[in-house]
Each structure stands twice: as structure tokens, then as C-alpha cells.
Amino acid sequence: MNSAVKAARKISVYRSTSANPFVNLAIESWLFSNPKDNDEYSLYLWRNGPSVIIGKHQSAWRECNVQKMEDEKVNLVRRGSGGGAVYQDLGNSIFSFLSPRSDTESIKRNNSILIDALQSKYNINAVPTGRNDLHVEERKISGAAFRNTKDRSLHHGTLLLNVDMSALGNYLTPNKLKLQSKGVASVESHVLNLVEKEPNITHEGVGEAITASFFKSHGISCDTIDVHEDVVMKEQDH
Question: What are the φ/ψ torsions at residue 42 (nearest 5 degrees)?
Fold first, then answer.
């Protein structure tokens, strides 16, 4: 793509100051449904306190230990995209790319942004596997889900920085066959917390690296906007 086309692009970057999953998903939904322009490319960076996020069509009672979550004050939240149930805590960095629906290369570009961010700042070499995941040394470090409207596309997912892996067995309840073949020990062997590769990795540092890579990919930069619940409420009042 030539520099003139890139220069004409509209971009925006948002960073949540909240760790409340209800607030963060509401902000994401607001950004997705109310773009400044349907051709705009936006990046939204956030993370949640201890939570289980289930896909649009999933049954919470089938996927989660709801009583244990309630007893231990772990949030249960349904997102608007498909995919499976995931556990999140402050050891997760979450990214949302919001793009024009007409851009058929957006997922490939977004993955390249994430890969470049990890390599350039932390010398971590990640590779895409299929449509949804990123792996480092054949272990999963990122999963993603997607949502589309007529005009806009959402690609969001997590990066495992230092997640409590034991929580997977505490709060998620796959069927018995899965538990027998893919128990917590097996899950841990197939996923990787990036702190194992870079002890100094942080949510803030990863966000800065993704933002820099986002700017480089689109050939333009902008200010980063801090967002929280009050920002959405004010927008709705206008």
C-alpha cells in the first residue's frame, strides 16, 4: 500500500483505565457500534480483574463452576463474539482491533502488529497458527475471537503475560472426557506465560509496543485516549 493511501487513513487508540470487565466490554461495544468513521482503524487496550468471559452462544452453567466463582467473587461476563470460555486476570493483556468490514486483510495485519510488537520490544518470536492463535515455541500465548456488522469488524483477544493457570481448573468445567485427556497439567504444557521468556514484561510495556507497531503498520500516529465508564456515559448523553 502506497504512503498516500496510508496517510489518508483515520486511526485512533484507546486505553482503558479500569479493570472492571463489565465496564471494559461496554467500552468496547460502544467503540464498535459508534465509530467516528466506518473507515477508521482503532486499537483498544485493556485488561480485567479475575473473570470468566464466555462466548455469545455458550451456557454459563455448562462451561463454568458458577457457584465457586460466586463464592470467590470471580466475575462472569458474556461477550458479543463467538468462541469459547476463557479465564482472565491482571496477568492478561487484552487487545481489540476495530476495522472497516471491507478490509479483508485486517486479521493478517493485526496479527503482524502483535508479532512485531513482541519481537521488537522483547525479542520474543511469535507465529500465527490458523486464524485465531499465536504461538511461541509451539505453545499458545494468544487466542482471539471475532465479530462483524455490515460496516465494521472486531478482532479481539488476549496475550498471556502472567496469568494464574491454576484458575483454569478452578473455574472452567469442560466435559469429563476433556478433563481426562486435557487436565490442568496438560493445559499448562500447551500454553505459555510470556513472563517465562521475559521476566520484566508488563501490561503497560506490551501496550506501548502494540501501539508503536500499530502506528508503524498504518503509517500514521495519533494521541492515545484514556477511557473509563464516565467517558461512555458522557458520549451517550450527547
Answer: -125, 150
For residues 128 and 115, give the distance between their C-alpha atoms in angstroms, rounded to a whole number: 8
CA angle 89, 90, 91 (to 5 degrees): 90
Which amino acid belongs to residue 232? V
Burial-class residue 63 by CB neighbours within 10 Å (0-12, 13-18, 19+).
buried
Backbone angles phi, psi at 148, to 5 degrees: -130, 145
How far apart are the C-alpha atoms of 116 and 114, rounded to whole Å? 5
Q: What is the DSSP letter of 47?
A: -
- Contact call for residues 122 and 201 (beta carbons, < 8 A): yes
Cα separation, 154 vs 34, whole angstroms: 13
Note the pLDDT tens digit of each residue in 137-164. 999 999 998 999 999 999 999 999 999 9
pTM of the model: 0.86
The pLDDT tens digits of the residues spanning 170-208 come to 888 755 444 444 444 434 448 899 999 999 999 999 999
- Asked if residues 81 and 143 have their Cβ atoms less than 8 Å apart, the reply is no
Give the separation between CA 210 and CA 217, rounded to whole angstroms. 10
Question: Bridge partners of 152?
Answer: 100
